């Protein structure tokens, strides 16, 4: 299959197209509702809080409610390592990229480039696009990858923008927010499930195929008592309703936020446009190149599922916390606001492009 046929197949894949249109249309719906006054000025913030404190923690925890195997464990370790390495790489790479800018402006542009909205923007899109194909694996890899993001955002990001040493409040923010708690709780259960006290549970397993239908039988199987998907389905079931809310609510919040600001004013800022191109195009491209090299050489191999998750999460606009740092510490707050807006607009436009590029990479068998 040549490149033209691969692109054609990708562009006619209704699963991919539907995922892209769902993202764009719901963001536009949020924008329309805000412009028409259906949403008031607080809706974007309220929806964001719901996503960050309820839906995404449920999504992160649920992802680890699965059996462990050597391959998934090895891949998760590789993704965790890359999730730490990429931020160290970006700290150094961002310096020459913004070398012509000085002082607070350079610091702001570098921090905004290093830290994207991986949690609020990236995870919902990655799980919506690739969830049907890879299931909970995408959410698991995204949660593991985001550990490095949290560590560096609340340490390096804070120190760089504030000019101060690390404070206790940021250590608290790093480890005690709902998403981090849910991620580490799920991760520890997943890794150590074989060592935890076991509970016998009746489960349905395939036995035979009769007239094209799968016939199952009930068998007893042991699970760690904290695997609530098996041992306490009455407790796990509410989480399965909350987790899927992350994507639509996040997209509505993004649209509502865009409807709150002046796009025309921000569009005249050339520096913000330069930043946005670096953040939404150069950073994910850098990840693809480096991961391709590491996978080909066997140094740090990752699957296509991991690559797609990482690229989607890195092709995101400015992180809310990073922009808040710039505003709080008066580090060119206007630039941060304009950059946040333009990078969000560019990310909405580029996300379908990245998804298509990733599908081309997949069909070419590069990962």
Automatic annotation (TrEMBL):
Signal peptide feature range: none
TM ranges: 15-34, 46-65, 77-99, 111-130, 136-153, 174-192, 241-261, 273-296, 302-327, 339-361
Swiss-Prot/TrEMBL keywords: Cell membrane, Membrane, Transmembrane, Transmembrane helix, Transport
InterPro entries (alphabetical): Mem_transp_PIN-like
Annotated membrane topology: Multi-pass membrane protein
Subcellular location: Membrane
A single cellular component GO annotation: membrane
A GO biological process held by the record: transmembrane transport
PANTHER family registered for this protein in UniProt: AUXIN EFFLUX CARRIER FAMILY PROTEIN, TRANSPORTER AUXIN EFFLUX CARRIER EC FAMILY
Protein name: Malate permease
């Amino acid at each position: 299959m040549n490149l033209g046929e691969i692109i054609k197949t990708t562009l006619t894949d209704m699963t991919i197209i539907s995922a892209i249109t769902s993202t764009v249309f719901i963001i536009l719906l949020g924008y329309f509702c805000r412009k028409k006054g259906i949403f008031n000025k607080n809706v974007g913030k309220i929806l964001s809080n719901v996503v960050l404190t309820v839906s995404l923690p449920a999504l992160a925890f649920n992802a680890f409610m699965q059996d462990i195997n050597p391959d998934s464990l090895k891949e998760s370790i590789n993704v965790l390592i890359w999730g730490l390495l990429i931020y160290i790489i970006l700290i150094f790479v961002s310096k020459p990229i913004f070398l012509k800018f000085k002082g607070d402006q350079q610091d702001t542009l570098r921090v905004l480039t290093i830290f994207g909205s991986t949690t609020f923007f990236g995870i919902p899109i990655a799980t919506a696009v690739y969830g049907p194909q890879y299931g909970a694996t995408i959410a698991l890899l995204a949660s593991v990858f985001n550990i490095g993001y949290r560590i560096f955002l609340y340490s390096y990001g804070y120190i760089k923008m504030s000019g101060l040493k690390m404070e206790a409040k940021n250590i608290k923010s790093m480890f005690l927010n709902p998403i981090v708690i849910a991620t580490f709780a799920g991760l520890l259960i997943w890794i150590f499930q074989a060592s935890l006290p076991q509970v016998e549970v009746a489960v349905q397993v395939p036995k035979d195929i009769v007239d094209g239908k799968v016939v199952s039988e009930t068998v007893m199987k042991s699970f760690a008592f904290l695997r609530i998907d098996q041992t306490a389905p009455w407790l796990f079931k509410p989480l399965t309703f909350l987790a899927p809310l992350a994507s639509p609510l996040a997209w509505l919040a993004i649209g509502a936020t865009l409807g709150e600001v002046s796009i025309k004013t921000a569009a005249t800022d050339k520096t913000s446009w330069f930043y946005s191109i670096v953040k939404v195009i150069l950073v994910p491209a850098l990840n693809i190149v480096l991961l391709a090299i590491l996978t080909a050489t066997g140094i740090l191999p990752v699957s296509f599922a991991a690559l797609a998750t990482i690229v989607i999460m890195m092709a995101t606009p400015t992180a809310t916390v990073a922009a808040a740092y710039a505003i709080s510490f008066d580090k060119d707050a206007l630039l941060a606001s304009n950059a946040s807006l333009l990078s969000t607009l560019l990310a909405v436009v580029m996300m379908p492009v990245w998804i298509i590029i990733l599908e081309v990479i997949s069909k070419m068998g590069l990962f």
